[in-house]
Design a protein that fits this description.
heterodimer, A: 568 residues, alpha/beta, Rossmann fold, 8-stranded mixed beta sheet, elongated, B: 443 residues, Arc Repressor Mutant, subunit A, ThiF_NAD_FAD-bd (chain A), Ubiquitin-activating_enz (chain A)
């Protein structure tokens, strides 16, 4: 431990670079790996309508340094654009909106490359392989559903994540298409939920440590006694408990509180005993993975591996084998800070780290044998770091089962297939904003039904509710469409909603439709900006494969100031 | 192409909302709304991550008259989200660069920049605004402006009531809230929503470090004082951070602790909170959306609604068990998207907004005894054993017995002989932990 006074100062290898300084506040969230993923991204915005939300989204992505973005928009800047879009100025008037917004967005960050595409969507979207350069596609409503269907077909074939977004008056809504399997390892769980110390199933090295630290406790001096790590205390008293209870561990709530009283008797006031007592209920739980994690480890993709299976599934298979053998997941290996002497704490950290490394090594060995048996090519060798990362976060992995975007058909009541029952339940949940979602589907149906020609340039040929003077008539039409959707959902789900609930639902959706028609397709800057923040955040999660994205539709109500996520 | 700086055509989209009644607007709503919006004077506190967004949002919500206060200058680490600033602006004051940028981009919007602390301005300055929006990272500054705005409320002057809209972010999380001073729960009432982080005990730093952060705090708090006490620590000076980093790293190596990095040193010493453009955009827009609704009444705003399922005729938010109007939106975006919008209840014992002196008319020839007896019946007081004092002197102590005896001589005196007209009286009672304040008007 002692170090020579003449030691040269350590080399300053990690003095931040200019780039690290600029991105410091975000690197603390998603790290260098997340940043690299962002920098390799090329996002396409297909912009329609007032087109503010998409541009605000891009602002929040250009700032943290995505690689490239493109805006496809054949609209020409009008005076109304200047009152709602910050990335246009008076000089932009009469010019292509795509070119002007790209220019002003690019000023935000010289590291980002922007491209404008002014060709009409109708002719552009049907070209062969036109979507291949893009990592992610953003589509702003309104657009002809036939074109949306074409885009959807392309993104699904290429498994490119895509967002379809609306921002109308005080309301907004967006849906995220992800591939059928979108796994995340680095979910950044709440640090208070990640402690996994295996106190009910200690291994020999940990037991030996506890024994050493609690040996002749009654003869210790005050200083030593006050610094016995609480982990050792719990293990010590567990043995005492087992001796008095036929070798059984405290498992029921009542037993655990009795056990806590036993620990408390050891010392009424020492801080380490406080820590031990506080930890009893939280840590004396079997390290059983959640049903969600079990489901992922047993997913068909993990069971039926092929030579080209993504690494996630190969590791999942190896971890499931580990679980079947040991009855627990690999140990994550982290120890929370606790009252102890420095060397004792480091000793304890090393005991956990060593066990975590052993567990990980076993999983790596299984991965290697799987690779060999599957005949995976040398190019597809799974990085040991990836296995290690998975082992550390195994209890908190997440899988999104992506679903296609909902595309309406003119003059047809939209239905929801296997999500109908779920949606019917949501209709009567007072916390749910499902009615706002339904009103947006009705809004799309209105646009689809009132679109006379798809041959006209851009979105000019589209008619949105309330665009004309008689917005009240449109509100009624929109309400009518919404009522039809609601009735069909209830009927298809085979349920029945009684009055007064049924009338209340219809009245509520009617009010939403009034607000949507009132806006006449207008975006309010605040709602566009807020929604642009939400969408950008989801894009960052999808691109970095960190944190947990929505699954799969989000609505925001700017009147009540509430959001809600639905799985459609 | 020439543009009229501010023709109504520019506001065509927003005017749909401002000229058409909605599902929640009053029947009389509509007349003069655009004028009200254009005449509103808004104060923005902070021109950082939230402030830049707030200024942009207000300008594009049709507000024409904005002031912004910020004492800070632009740092390179601001550029990943404070989008009104460029590399060439580093070192310049945030408030003026932000104001100039937005005024240039949105003609017709006037923004006054103040490069100073909020505490440098007086009540007269704050009185000119119709509302205040805060985008701050300091709890102290929030409490200061909150206390000032609550203190400024004068029930005889509607203009003295200034809604306070507050936003805050940390990483993927944030909150926005609306305070109507004296009417709804204030920042001080909500103080428990911001629990301070527990500090590491000094003895841990000094003798038994276990974490890399302990080594950094040791270098920061103990070692700097020992070895460089003549130099004022500047956490923006790379040489200083480098010294702390080296010192912490050496200590960590002595104890076998891993993980001290330059970036962590900076984070611990400067108490850096991660910040990204998207969360700022969400929270700032939520704040400005509330400001727009308050200014235009085009839809109900937070803190200004009657809770669902409550009879509006009998609703009294100050009643003990009555629900508070929704005034707070908590936002989390790290695990899916989740907002929790709720009514934070005003705290009657809030030291800032809990107790406004009530006006009390008292006949000048009434005795103190009679006045004291009347407190038992006053519905807002119902005090059985009140003690009374004015700013300067004690009038009567109900307990303990020794003090009661010393002051009971006053009980027979007439009120006009005990105090001046308009004087404030503080009434306390052993049964309540709070003070009741009255302004006495003698007749």
């Amino acid at each position: 431990m002692a170090s020579s006074q003449n030691e040269v100062p350590p080399p300053l290898q990690d003095i931040p670079t200019a780039k690290e300084k600029k991105y410091d506040r975000q690197l603390r969230l998603w790290g260098a790996g997340g940043q690299l993923a962002l920098e390799e991204t090329h996002i396409l915005l297909i912009n329609n309508g007032p087109g503010v939300t998409g541009v605000e989204t891009l602002k929040n992505l250009v700032l943290p340094g995505i690689g490239q973005f493109s805006i496809l928009d054949s609209a020409v800047v009008s005076e109304a654009d200047l009152g709602v879009n910050f990335f246009l100025d008076d000089d932009s008037l009469g010019k292509f909106r795509a070119e002007e917004t790209v220019k002003l967005l690019q000023e935000l960050n010289p590291d980002v490359k922007g491209t404008a595409i002014t060709e009409p969507l109708e002719t552009w979207a049907v070209k062969d392989k036109i979507f291949t350069p893009y990592t992610l596609v953003l589509i702003a409503a309104p657009l002809d559903p036939a074109i949306l269907a074409t885009i959807d077909k392309h993104v699904q074939a290429l498994e490119i994540p895509a967002f379809y977004l609306h921002s109308v008056g005080y309301y907004s809504q967006f849906s995220l298409y992800l591939p059928p399997a979108f796994p995340i390892v680095d979910t950044h769980p709440d640090p208070t939920s990640t402690d996994d110390l295996r106190l009910l199933k200690p291994w020999p090295a940990l037991l030996e440590f506890a024994k050493q630290k609690t040996a002749s406790m009654d003869k210790m001096n005050g200083e030593q006694f006050a610094h016995i790590p609480w982990i050792a205390l719990i293990l010590h008293y567990l043995q005492e408990w087992q001796a008095a209870h036929d070798g059984k561990l405290p498992t029921e709530y009542k037993e655990k509180t009795q056990f806590r009283d036993l620990v408390r008797k050891g010392s009424p006031s020492e801080e380490n005993f406080d820590e031990a007592c506080a930890a009893v209920l939280k840590t004396l739980v079997p390290p059983k993975p959640s049903s969600k994690v079990t489901e992922i480890l047993n997913a068909p993709e993990a069971k039926n591996l092929t030579a080209t299976s993504p690494p996630f599934w190969v590791i999942a298979n190896a971890i499931q084998q580990f679980y079947e053998k040991h009855g627990e997941l690999p140990l994550p290996g982290a120890v929370p800070d606790l009252k102890a002497q420095s060397d004792t704490f480091i000793q304890l950290q090393n005991i956990y780290k060593t066990k975590a490394r052993e567990d990980c090594a076993e999983v790596v060995a299984t991965v290697r044998s799987l690779e060999k048996n599957l005949g995976r090519s040398g190019k597809l060798v799974i990085d040991e770091k990836e296995v290690e990362n998975f082992c550390k976060g195994a209890a908190h992995i997440h899988l999104v089962r992506g679903r296609p975007l909902k595309i309406v058909t003119p003059d047809t009541v939209t239905t929801f297939g296997d999500r109908t029952k779920y949606l019917a339940n949501e209709l009567t949940n007072p916390e749910s904003l499902s009615l706002l979602y339904i009103a947006f589907v009705a809004w799309d149906e209105y646009v689809a039904t009132h679109t006379t020609s798809t041959k006209e340039a851009g979105s000019e040929g589209l008619k949105v509710p309330g665009a004309g003077d008689d917005y009240e008539a449109d509100a009624e039409k929109l309400t009518g469409i919404s009522h039809k959707i609601i009735d069909s959902v209830i009927k298809e789900a085979g349920t029945f909603v009684e009055d007064p609930e049924y009338s209340q639902i219809k009245e509520k959706v009617g009010k939403i439709c009034v607000e949507l028609a009132r806006a006449g397709g207008a975006e309010l800057h605040n709602i566009a900006s807020l929604t642009g923040g939400l969408v950008a955040q989801e894009i960052i999660k999808v691109i970095t494969k960190q944190y947990v994205p929505i699954d799969n539709t989000c609505v925001f109500d700017g009147i009540a100031s509430k959001s809600y996520v639905l799985r459609i | 192409m020439a543009v009229n700086g501010d023709s109504r055509a520019r506001w065509r989209y927003m005017d749909h909302i401002l000229t058409r009644p909605g599902a929640y607007t009053d029947p009389e709503w509509g007349e003069g709304i655009i004028g009200t919006l254009e005449n509103a004077k808004v104060l923005v506190i902070g021109a950082g991550g939230l402030g830049c967004e707030i200024l942009k949002n207000l300008a594009l919500s049709g507000f024409k008259s904005i002031d912004v206060i910020d004492m800070d200058t632009i740092d390179v680490s601001n550029l990943n989200r404070q989008f009104l600033f460029r590399q060439s602006d580093v070192g310049k004051p945030k408030a003026s660069v932000a104001a100039d940028f937005v005024m240039k981009r949105v003609p017709g919007c006037k923004i006054n920049a103040h490069v100073c602390k909020i505490q440098d301005k007086d009540e007269e300055f704050y009185m000119q605004f119709s509302m205040v929006i805060c985008g701050l990272d300091s709890i102290e500054a929030r409490r200061w402006i909150n206390a000032l705005l609550v203190g400024m409320v004068d029930y005889d002057n509607d203009d003295s009531l200034k809604p306070l809209i507050d936003g805050g972010t940390e990483g993927f999380k944030g909150q926005s809230r609306v305070v109507i001073p004296r009417m709804t729960s204030c920042i001080e009432c909500q103080l428990d929503m911001h629990a301070p982080r527990a500090a590491v005990p000094l003895c841990t730093l000094a003798t038994i470090p276990r974490q890399p952060q302990h080594c950094i705090e040791w270098a920061h708090i103990i070692k700097w004082e020992e070895e460089r006490k003549d130099i004022q620590l500047d956490t923006d000076d790379p040489e200083h951070i480098t010294w702390l980093y080296r010192t912490a790293l050496k200590r960590a190596q002595e104890f076998g602790i891993q993980g001290v990095t330059y970036s962590m040193t900076q984070g611990v010493v400067k108490n850096i909170i991660p910040a990204i453009a998207s969360t700022n955009a969400i929270i700032a827009a939520s704040c400005c959306n509330e400001a727009f609704k308050i200014a235009t009444s085009s839809a109900p705003a937070l803190a200004n609604t009657i809770p669902e399922g409550v009879d509006p005729e009998t609703y009294d938010p100050d009643e003990e068990f009555a629900p508070a109007p929704n005034n707070y939106m908590l936002y989390t975006g790290d695990n899916s998207i989740y907002t929790f919008t709720f009514g934070h209840k005003k705290k009657p014992d809030c030291p800032v907004c809990g107790n406004l002196p009530k006006d009390l008319t008292v006949p000048g020839d009434q005795t103190l005894q009679e006045l004291i007896e009347s407190f038992a019946e006053r519905p807002e007081a119902q005090l059985k054993k009140p003690s009374l004092s004015t700013g300067g002197k004690t009038l009567f102590f109900s307990s303990p017995e020794s003090l009661r005896q010393q002051t009971e001589g006053n009980l027979r005196k007439k009120m006009r002989d005990l105090m001046e007209d308009g004087e404030e009286v503080v009434v306390t009672d052993p049964a309540f932990p709070t003070e009741f304040k009255y302004t006495i008007h003698l007749t």
